[in-house]
């Protein structure tokens, strides 16, 4: 039996047992297998349910496997074990003895056997990294509550809090089971973090407890709890379809993004109304956009997609076409970059890896395994029991202690990647220019008349605690030279500027190799470092549009709605996984690595199902409001309440994912006569009568509060969630138990709760935020002194404007 790995892969020799069911665990172990890990998937005799899964409902013949399963399990091995067999239980235990990590989620008889619950694995196999992915975490009052990705989205605040959906309709969830994919990426990051803290043979293992709720709070909301604590008002209090995002052209849909006031002004000029540009008037940019929206939409309707995109690119306005499963593979940019590849076993098309590396470190994928294909081989191999692995002392140091990172990032995607490193011990130096501070410093609508308004943004604070701040104006040669000197002292350089900027600074890959051959350079461009879209500025909304994430979000009779957040946060965690693989390679070889992690490549991966379903089955997945292929019924239902803003806009999410959930729902409803129809006992019948069920559930919910509905249905065993405004998610008791939020006091911004990482690590830390987010340029003198500059030299740089601690505008 051949191994799916090459000797150069970062995780060569790293053995992972996959005890998971569903997308999250499968995607986690796929990312590890791509990095060279040997992944052994343990399945029950009936096989993983993903083997028979198709989001479009395509017929998968007995003995065949679904295309998504083939995508997620390339290069893995499959063994079969029966939870009712003592011999099979012992076999699985021997596999764990010889492994380095295990990835676990509930859903299979083997995973749910008491011997293989995560805490018990940790107790009986102390050397293992045990990564568990659950809805709410392994501990706390909600740890056993039923949930689906849809109901977790409701609890996270991600359904309603960022303007997703028009006011006259129910809010809409982000389609495509996106929380599962995001949780899988964070599970991979957690596993690699634990491995980096203590390589194989260097100590005891660790329990990495990943919560999908915390993942979705981080990725689908915008630091809303911190925002409200610091400023006394929510980030947003009104649902609306924004002007930008998706616009209807004469011949299709275009995704546009306005992240700055300048981009709004450029848009006004682009549509032929420069007289609308008003930087000092009484209306905010948002209010101006709302006022001008009808005329702008008429302009868009009169122009083609290509015309709009050509003009937007000329004005440097972020833009992309809106992709779906049938279109994405045909986009010229993806074709030129070979972003979509052929599955090695199924022959269908699928996204390539979310990052590219030099030297080439990722393995070439092998076909997915047949059910139990490797059982006999592993049984023979495990018969001769090996001694239990040596277990070292409990580890106390933070995973990234001693790692020094030059953080040349801005806004959300890049800073979220480096923030994870900073929260877990890295010395992260966040570089800004006084002429162009980090964009999140400017995104809180704090009046410029307030003293030090630029240091008060809760969004900047939420992304940058534990970091140090250096201001350098790279328009000056002295500023560029300072960065080059600083880069020589850093293990990792991370940047997410537009592609041409790093060449100007003199810190591209060839230049960095001359400065420090063992450094890792992580670049996070929007669309990549080459291809037709290379120089188009990127925001989350256009990344989501191009990748298909937007296409699945919204009501079917309306234009799709951009998720708004996923493009950034998803890019951050995928770049982090790529970086951790590069760090492992450097640890093994001493060699530097260049990592290119485009935002759009990460988005293509979590939207993979669309390209896969079309290529494999000819099916174009489409948005369906709040219904979805994973549960029936699944929808939002309005309660009898008025929200804090005086609107009848309170909702609950209900998802019946199994026949057992349906029985529980009938019990919770009191066995009403309409629900006793035998046709509803199976998913096909419930899907056929979804409208009828919706009508009855809407009527039942309309006379109750959300709390009453949740209490009734959760007790019965039904996945249910309250659709939370994101500034209230800090009130969820489960998050208190897990200490997901920590209070941070900022000398200018005040005290606010800040989110941590979406996992608990058994080896610590207990506290993540040890230093408030830096004030602009707070550590400039300190850092320059560390480089050996004298006080006089530092003063001269300040006098010349190369460094500064106040914005220059």
Structural commentary:
- The chain is of the alpha/beta class and 809 residues long.
- Among the domains are: 258-317, no CATH class; 632-718, formyl-coa transferase, domain 3.
- Helix content is 35%, strand content 13%.
- It has 29 helices and 24 strands.
- The protein has a seven-stranded mixed beta sheet with strand order 3-2-1-4-5-6-24, sandwiched between helices. A seven-stranded mixed beta sheet has the order 12-18-17-16-13-14-15.
- Helix 14 links the parallel strand 13 and strand 14 (427-432).
- Helix 14 packs across helix 20 (566-589).
- The longest helix is centred in the last third of the chain and has 24 residues, at 566-589.
- The chain is globular and about 80 Å long.
- The model is unreliable at 1-7 (pLDDT under 50).
Short précis:
35% of the residues lie in helices and 13% in strands. It contains 29 helices and 24 strands.
């Amino acid at each position: 039996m051949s191994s799916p790995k090459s000797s150069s892969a970062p995780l060569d020799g790293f053995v992972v047992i996959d005890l998971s069911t569903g997308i999250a665990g499968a995607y986690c172990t796929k990312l590890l297998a791509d990095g060279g890990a040997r992944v052994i998937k343990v399945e029950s005799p009936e096989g993983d349910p993903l083997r028979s899964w198709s989001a479009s409902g395509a017929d998968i013949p007995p003995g065949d496997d679904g295309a998504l399963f083939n995508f997620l399990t390339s290069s893995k091995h499959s063994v079969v074990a029966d939870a009712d067999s003592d011999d099979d239980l012992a076999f699985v235990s021997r596999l764990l003895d010889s492994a380095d990590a295990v990835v676990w989620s509930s859903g299979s008889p083997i995973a749910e056997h008491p011997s293989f619950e995560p805490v018990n694995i940790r107790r009986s196999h102390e050397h293992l990294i045990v990564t568990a992915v659950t809805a709410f975490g392994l501990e706390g009052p909600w740890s056993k509550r039923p949930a689906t990705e849809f109901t977790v989205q409701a609890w996270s605040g991600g359904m309603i809090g960022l303007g997703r959906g028009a006011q006259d309709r129910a809010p809409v969830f982000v389609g495509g089971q996106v929380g599962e994919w995001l949780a899988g990426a964070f599970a991979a990051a957690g596993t690699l973090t634990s491995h980096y803290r203590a390589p194989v043979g260097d100590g005891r293992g660790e329990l990495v407890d990943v919560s999908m709720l915390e993942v979705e709070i981080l990725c689908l909301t915008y630091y809303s709890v911190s925002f409200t604590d610091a400023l006394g008002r929510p980030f947003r209090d009104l649902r609306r379809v924004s002007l930008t995002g998706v616009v209807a052209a004469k011949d299709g849909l275009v995704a546009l993004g306005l992240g700055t006031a300048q981009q709004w002004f450029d848009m006004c000029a682009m549509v032929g109304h420069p007289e609308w540009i008003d930087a000092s008037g009484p209306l905010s940019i948002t209010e101006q956009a709302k006022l001008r929206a009808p005329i702008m939409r008429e302009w868009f309707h009169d122009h083609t997609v290509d015309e709009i995109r050509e003009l937007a690119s000329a004005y440097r306005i972020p833009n992309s076409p809106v992709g779906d499963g049938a279109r994405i593979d045909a986009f010229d940019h993806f074709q030129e970059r070979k972003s979509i590849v052929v599955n090695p076993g199924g022959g269908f098309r699928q996204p390539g890896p979310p990052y590219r590396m030099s030297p080439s470190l990722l393995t070439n994928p092998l076909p997915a395994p047949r059910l139990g294909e490797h059982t006999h081989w592993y049984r023979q191999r495990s018969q001769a029991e090996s001694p239990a692995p040596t277990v070292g002392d409990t580890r106390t140091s933070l995973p990234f202690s001693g790692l020094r990172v030059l953080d040349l990032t801005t806004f959300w995607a890049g800073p979220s990647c480096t923030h994870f490193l900073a929260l877990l011990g890295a010395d992260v130096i966040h570089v800004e220019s006084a002429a162009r501070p980090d964009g999140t410093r400017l995104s809180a609508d704090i009046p410029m008349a307030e003293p030090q308004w630029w240091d008060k943004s809760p969004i900047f604070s939420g992304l940058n605690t534990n970091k140090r701040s250096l201001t350098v104006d790279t328009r000056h040669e002295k500023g560029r030279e300072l960065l080059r000197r600083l880069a020589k002292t850093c293990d990792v350089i991370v940047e997410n500027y537009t592609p041409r900027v790093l060449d100007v600074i003199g810190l591209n890959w060839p230049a960095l190799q001359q400065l420090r051959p063992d450094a890792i350079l992580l670049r996070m461009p929007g669309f990549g470092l080459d291809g037709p879209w290379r120089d188009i500025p990127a925001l989350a909304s256009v990344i989501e549009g191009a990748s298909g994430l937007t296409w699945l979000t919204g009501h079917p009779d309306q234009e799709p709605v951009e998720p708004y957040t996923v493009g950034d946060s998803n890019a951050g965690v995928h770049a982090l996984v790529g970086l951790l693989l590069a760090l492992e390679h450097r640890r093994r070889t001493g060699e530097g690595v260049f990592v290119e992690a485009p935002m759009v490549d990460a988005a293509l991966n979590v939207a993979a199902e669309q390209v896969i379903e079309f290529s494999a089955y000819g099916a174009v997945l489409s948005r369906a409001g709040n219904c979805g292929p994973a549960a029936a019924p699944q929808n939002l239902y309005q309660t009898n309440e008025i929200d804090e803003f005086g609107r009848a806009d309170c909702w609950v999410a209900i998802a019946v994912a199994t026949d057992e959930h349906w029985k529980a729902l009938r019990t919770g409803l009191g066995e009403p006569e309409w629900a006793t129809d035998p046709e509803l006992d199976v998913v096909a019948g419930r899907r056929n009568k979804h409208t009828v069920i919706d009508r009855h559930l809407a009527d039942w919910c309309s006379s109750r509060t959300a709390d009453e509905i949740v209490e009734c249905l959760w007790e019965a065993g039904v996945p249910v969630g309250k659709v939370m405004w994101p500034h209230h998610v800090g009130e969820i008791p489960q998050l208190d138990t897990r200490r997901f939020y920590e209070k941070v006091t900022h000398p200018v911004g005040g005290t606010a709760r800040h989110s941590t990482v979406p996992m608990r690590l058994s080896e610590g830390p207990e506290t993540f935020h040890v230093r408030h987010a830096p004030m602009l340029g707070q550590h400039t003198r300190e850092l320059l002194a560390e480089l050996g500059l004298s006080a006089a030299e530092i003063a001269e740089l300040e006098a010349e404007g190369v460094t500064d601690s106040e914005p220059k505008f």
